[in-house]
């Protein structure tokens, strides 16, 4: 055993254990199983020294007795050993038990969110998603598609790596209406915005490259860049979007391969980047020769008003890729997104997409082509519903959790909540999970530590679900503030 291996602190161990506290059975058994998974996956290796029982109990908001019981079970299985003066370490017998890759991203923050999308524990209210169900307009469009377009679609071979021509035309018209002149050859259709981000990362990033990202940001997208081998450098956001002074410095010092931004209703803060900042971002990126990936998949306004033209509309010299999606505007189950970019970039992206799936589902694309021109007519009703959901959630939080604070978002479907000073949102998230609520803590969206006291709280729930959610969050908040014995 390598006695020179460094001790793993509680914070690092929490990341390795992942989503351990949901499920059935006593807490000590769930914790024991999580340690076992970390050892078998190779995240914990022979010789790794674990935190003391007391430190780990404090970090996980558990009683010391629960952690002691878990360590006893681990010693009994031979996975760890404890020696006086040396502490508890992963045993040499645990070496060589590595299992095949399980899809997790090393250093990633979205693993637990993705895992719960797969396993879907019963009765869990997830705050990892901020998407609404499909409305009657979607059903009508689907029926019209079947009646009018299906025969022709069935005669099509179905292989369109760059996208169904009718949808590429609709996307081009959509961007042209919003101040970004576009032709169909500048559009590649993707299976959702996540694939759009992944293809862009594949095109520009590689092991050892640097990506500039907003801080905070959405962990699912950040993990896409980590999976590509990139090093992430965060740039702060204020009420007008990414801070230009910090961005200018980062571009000059870091020499990044890609700049990734969410200018329209940034996730998780709901900030709308001003037109002036969009223009300055385009100028700076062109000056430094850095391609910009602007993710506009969250174009979900809370109030009527014009959104400034995309960053790409201000870029005469640089390269800007603009991502769009129908997930937030129409339905999460309609996995259709796109990238608008220069023609040569679109050609490369289409080749990469062809290698992956030969093209997105044809019927979904045809449905999207029908819906996209109707978005302006649907927007007012969608905005009204979001305002109602936001008002319901803020009223419930004000009544039950008055210690929490937030800024009113400009758009999107979530609140960026600040917990009282000194609160570790990761610890609270573990307690909330034991009360049936999945909370995304701030450190998942900003690994620098600047938002460790924040959580993201979607509002896109029916009123009854919102009330039940806040009940669970309130119960978890009370449990967190009680003694560890009450939780163990």
TrEMBL record:
HTH gntR-type domain sequence ranges: 25-93
Highest taxon above the source species: Bacteria
InterPro entries registered for this protein in UniProt: Aminotransferase_I/II_large, HTH_trans_reg/aminotransferase, PyrdxlP-dep_Trfase, PyrdxlP-dep_Trfase_major, PyrdxlP-dep_Trfase_small, Tscrpt_reg_HTH_GntR, WH-like_DNA-bd_sf, WH_DNA-bd_sf
UniProt keyword list: Aminotransferase, DNA-binding, Pyridoxal phosphate, Transcription, Transcription regulation, Transferase
Keyword match DNA-binding: yes
GO molecular function, one term: transaminase activity
Family indicated by similarity: In the C-terminal section; belongs to the class-I pyridoxal-phosphate-dependent aminotransferase family.
Name of the protein in its database record: PLP-dependent aminotransferase family protein
Species of provenance: Streptomyces polychromogenes
Lineage start: Bacteria, Bacillati, Actinomycetota, Actinomycetes, Kitasatosporales
